[in-house]
Amino acid sequence: RVIYRVQEEQPPNTLIGSLASDYGFPDVGHLYKLEVGAPYLRVDGKTGDIYTTETSIDRESLRECQHLLPGEPCFLEFEVSITDLILNSSPRLLEGQIEVLDINDNTPNFASPVLTLSFPIPLAMDRDSGPNGVASYELTAGPEAQELFGLQVAEDQDEKQPQLIVMGNLDREQWDSYDLTIKVQDGGNPPRASSALLRITILDMNDNAPKFEKALYEAELSENSPMGHSVLQVKANDSDQGANAEIDYSFHQASDMVRRLLRLDRATGLITVQGPIDREDVNILKFSIMAKDKGANPKSARTQVVVTIKDMNDNAPSIEIRGIGLVTHQDGMANISEDVPVETAVALVQVSDRDEGENAVVTCVVAGDVPTNSLKVQVVDVNDNAPVFSQSFTEVAFPENNEPDDLVMEVSASDADSGSNAKLVYSLVTDPSSKGSFTIDPDSGEIRVKAVLDREQRERYEFLVVAADKGSPSLKGTASVAINVMDRNDNDPKFMLSGYNFSVMENMPPLSPVGMVTVIDADKGENARIQLSVEQDNGDFVIQNGTGTILSSISFDREQQSTYTFRLKAVDGGDPPRSAYVGVTINVLDENDNAPFITSPSNATYKHILPHTSPGQQVSKVKAEDIDSGVNAELTYSITGGNPFELFQISPHSGDITLEKEILRKHHGLHRLVVRVNDKGKPSRHGTALVHFYVNETLANRTLLDTLVGHSLDTPLDIDIAGDPEYERSKQRSNILFGVIAGIVAVTLVIVLVVLVRYCRQREAKSGYQAGKKETKDLYAPKQASKSGKSKSKVKKSKSPKPPKPTEDEEETGLQKSLKFNLMNDSVSDSPRIHLPLNSPPGSPDLGRH
């Protein structure tokens, strides 16, 4: 018989002992099986090591240990069958015991957390034994009771009886109760403790406690005794009288089983049977009885009672047939593998009797009217067939954007074995990329999708389905599954760019390509077939669906519109269709299709230059514009005619005209410069301007000068009017005409002035005003120039002040006002259409020459 020892409450998988090493069994070739001892124990089938399990061994809860006397050992029975696999012999049965050692895992507790009583103090209960039991009591009192009460612990029959000692005079009328705290502690390591409130009520004097006739009462009680059967009677005496001598009996430190099986008469102390007595459940009852008088301050005494249960032959032997070794039993049937060798032990027949002594001695025979049991032997299937699928390869189509846990398909396999060898468990073997996407019901073979599938991410899934039976060892079969993800129209068309910008030359013919867009759709088939169109179409553009090429329906003119903006719409062929939009900007590039045009000066204007103007001084500026852009609008200026003396030079970039040489006497008169303005386009375009300069000291005869400028506009550009003989003769004829006109105008002005002078003098005579001196010399001179138009020419000092010289702006404006015909056109052909005859007197200043 094997005996091991282990402390209670050990964690799971604690090694208790090793049958192989402790008893000399070989390390290999033996099979160990636990027959008795579950659920507290388990045995390693190869090594024979005995371990604890998840079910904790609690010494205080084991049925075998609940009614032990203090100090008695507690044993847990076990049986292990050992089969020699090499010799293939019948298993042998090894019986053993495990002594469960007590640990201090229980705290002593009072029956109630608040104790309201007089003497004596109830004992504290500790389910542990030996040194782990109750070790000490401690009393704690408030300041009002510290000097009145003490605690004395008396030891009686391995028990510690706390007694409350009164150390001072008690006066109920001053203090009728006291609340004390009594603490109990066991002797464990570490010790456990608890406390209770001890409430002391001060009563009138009762100074004699009851006294039992015996300190220990013992009796025997046969099991199955009838209800009301007398067991024994305890008796106590009290030397007091009256109520102080009337005794009340009660159980003290009695277990629930004692209180359930026995009844105590509180008045007589008679103990009788009140529940079924079965020795097989409990073989001894130990408890205490308290006798307490009925005085105002009751006193009590205790005695011990031990009742031994006598066995009666009331249990028939029981026969148990159970498996042994490799043979298992279930529902009275031995399951034998179909390939079991001959002489293999089929079952273990075990006979037991719950009685004891002679009543438990049994004889096994196969005859007579005695308890029997039967055994059915069933040949158990051996797992020698692997599962087989109905189809080794299955391919299904499943739509994307599914709901999680949707059913995809169901696979089925069969196994030619029986029982657990034919029970199949299905599982999946997937690659890492699709792990977690699908699951299979291990019992039914239903394959469900766990994730939302997206065809655009993955179009096909392939994996293996494994069917494994529950045999030992398990056999497996496999099948391949392919899932094709069907497309749904769940993606919008997508332009490759968020916006498109194209540039195109102006003047291109209609239906010329201006750009190309690319649009994709992640879907498939009709869901990815895209139609393109121009949104808010005004007919300017069209788009080819096959290529995404944008064509112009018109010829562009950048000067009319340089930028076109519109949206393209892409619609797929799904149901319902999905669409996308993108913005397109067409920038029309410039072509040199516009010539520069002159903004100033006008062809019909002139600029007065004084003879003493210094060389290098700017005398005018040609301004021009070009409505093209870029290099097509960059302008250069040049003098192409009318500069025979090379007096003038023009800046090619700014158009500033400067005087290059000192002005001589021969240079006096009217000059006409032909200025050409070219852009930098290829080919270049140009415009022409006429710039007139009048070189002279004064502008005394503006009318004549206006006539000369008008005559210049009718003169071909290849003729230099400065110094040309034909032009000089033409000017003389013009001078005579201007002289006549000037004479008529002068006479008219003299008459008007005389009238005005006489009129003013008459008014001045009346008002006392003195008129100033007349200045008839500058009759045709312009008005005084503004502050911003001061002349830079030097003027000789004179007693009579000269009229101020006109500014450039005033000269051009004055000439335009004096002409009564249209001189606003900038072309060379612009000239007055009417010439008035002039009768100027001979000898007018400079008219003969200019």
TrEMBL record:
Residues 776-850 are annotated as: Disordered. It is a single-pass type I membrane protein. SUPFAM superfamilies: Cadherin-like. One of its GO terms (cellular component) is plasma membrane. Residues 6-110, 124-212, 213-319, 349-389, 390-495, 496-598, 601-727 form the Cadherin domain. CDD domains: Cadherin_repeat. GO terms for molecular function: calcium ion binding. Gene3D superfamilies: Cadherins. PROSITE patterns: CADHERIN_1 (PS00232), CADHERIN_2 (PS50268). Residues 789-802 have a biased composition (Basic residues). It is found in: Cell membrane. Signal peptide: none annotated. SMART domains: CA. InterPro entries: Cadherin-like_dom (IPR002126), Cadherin-like_sf (IPR015919), Cadherin_CS (IPR020894), Protocadherin (IPR013585), Protocadherin/Cadherin-CA (IPR050174). Its main location: membrane. PANTHER family: CADHERIN-87A, PROTOCADHERIN-1. This is Protocadherin-1.
